[in-house]
Amino acid sequence: MDVEVIGAVSGLLVAVLGAVFAFSRWIITKFLSELKPNGGGSIKDKVEINSERLCRVEQRVDDIYHILAERK
Questions:
Q1: Helix, strand, coil % (nearest 5) of the chain?
Q2: Rounded CA separation 27/34 (Å)
Q3: What is the pLDDT of residue 36?
Q4: Strand, coil or helix: what is 70?
Q5: What is the average per-residue pLDDT within 9-21?
Q6: How would residue 26 be classed by pLDDT, with cut points 50, 70 and 90?
Q7: Is the separation of the CB atoms in 34 and 42 below 8 Å?
Q8: Positive or negative torsion for Cα 43, 45, 51, 54
Q9: CB within 8 A of 44, min separation 6: which ones?
Q10: How far is 52 from 23, CA to CA, in rounded Å?
């Protein structure tokens, strides 16, 4: 193989690996930012809000069961 071919293949390999690294870094940062609370816009904030709502609904259902149990 000539020196030019080795240089071209090496350059292509470096370019492809650099693109893969940059893309994977972008994807990781994008998804990690969704896991941090940011004032209501992230997935974690939505999960916490829904968890609080679920606890309130469960408490209301428990109260209804207690009211119905006292009537009998």
A1: 85, 0, 15
A2: 11
A3: 73
A4: helix
A5: 96
A6: very high
A7: yes
A8: negative
A9: 34, 35, 36, 37
A10: 36
Could you tell me which residues come within 8 angstroms of residue 33 by beta carbon, excluding any fewer than 6 positions away? 42
How far apart, in Å, do the first and last CA atoms of the chain sit?
93
Question: Chain-centre distance of CA 69, in angstroms?
Answer: 43
Residue type, 8: A
Look up residue 38 and give its two tokens.
């940011």
pLDDT at 13: 96
Note the pLDDT tens digit of each residue in 29-46: 888 877 777 777 777 778
Taking the C-alpha atoms of residue 17 and residue 50, their distance in angstroms, rounded to an integer, is 41
